[in-house]
Amino acid sequence: MKQQLALAFLSVLMAAPSAVQALPADTDTAASTAMVSDPCLPPIPVPEELAHTLEGALNPGPPTSFAQLSSKPQVQAYFKATEERAKTDWPNLCKYRRANAALTTPTKAVFMGDSITESWVPGDPKLFVDGVIGRGISGQTSPQMLLRFFQDVIELRPQVVHIMAGTNDIAGNTGPTTEQDYKNNIIAMVTLARAHHIQVALASILPASTFSWKPGFKPAATIKELNSWLQSYARKSHIRFVDYYAVLSDTQGGFKAELSNDGVHPNRDGYAAMRKLAQLGIAK
Fold first, then answer.
1. Is the domain of 109 the same as that of 183?
2. pLDDT tens digits, one per residue of 139-189
3. Is the domain of 193 the same as that of 265?
4. Residues 108 and 184 in one domain
């Protein structure tokens, strides 16, 4: 619950469906199995208390406090309901399923990632125009991204995919893991993209010295180590490496205070500092 409250504003960015029902009724055929034409339900209504938190998180200034939200019954009920639905859709394929189907124009670039990518769309909307789309999901780790990579990237046939993953792997959002597991997931996504003639822009992990939802963790050294691997892997694989870390980090390996309200997610100034690098990364 603490982790989700800390990331609450990022889970309500979009109105796209993000839930799946266990045994949905199919209007076209008798529901004799769980294989149906559309397993996704409409999104769970977002409590008003959470609906107004995004602006506070993106606007440069002091961090938004979520401590009082945890005591509100409607907020607790919302997170409980979303947790239950996640049990039947671990990679959250339902988040963008209908949005993907509704696309009518060619896709130039897909940004695949977690909450940092999800909040990038409202944080710097001028970047996401002319066929550039965001496919980030709050809290996700690299194995979850890998499971939805075919649906949310390959099937959209972009010219380039921008992959940013790692913060939540280091935080253990989906449980303990290894550095090699993380590397394997990155390699798998890059391999899938290149097999389908999609260029890759591999992003660094953003700096962080602490995680609010895992207060005992000290991630700075691990982030630096994995970024070194990402850069080396990108060079050996002849793909683009987008080094946001160099622009956003302070001398201690944390996030520059003026560019992030919580030390993990960029605010609007942070996204503005990332824009030029992002544009170069997805350029033809």
1. yes
2. 999 999 999 999 999 999 999 999 999 999 999 999 999 999 999 999 999
3. yes
4. yes
C-alpha–C-alpha distance, residues 155 and 69, integer Å: 38
The answer to whether residues 82 and 101 belong to one domain is no
The β-bridge relationship of strands 40-41 and 19-20 is antiparallel
Helix, strand, coil percent values for the chain (each to nearest 5): 45, 10, 40
Judged by phi (left if over 0) then psi (alpha if -120 to 50, else beta), residue 238 lies in left
Residue 174 is encoded by which pair of tokens? 């989906």
Q: What's the whole-model pTM score?
A: 0.89
How many alpha carbons lie under 13 Å from residue 140 in its C-beta half-sphere? Answer: 32
- How many domains in the chain? 2
Q: Which of 266, 275, 224 is nearest to 248 (CA)?
A: 266
| Number of residues that make up the chain | 284
Instruction: Determine contact, residues 186/178, Cβ cutoff 8 Å.
Output: no
Q: Tell me the pLDDT tens digit for each residue of 210-230.
A: 998 899 999 999 999 999 999
Q: Give pLDDT tens digits for 90-135.
A: 999 999 999 999 999 999 999 999 999 999 999 999 999 999 999 9
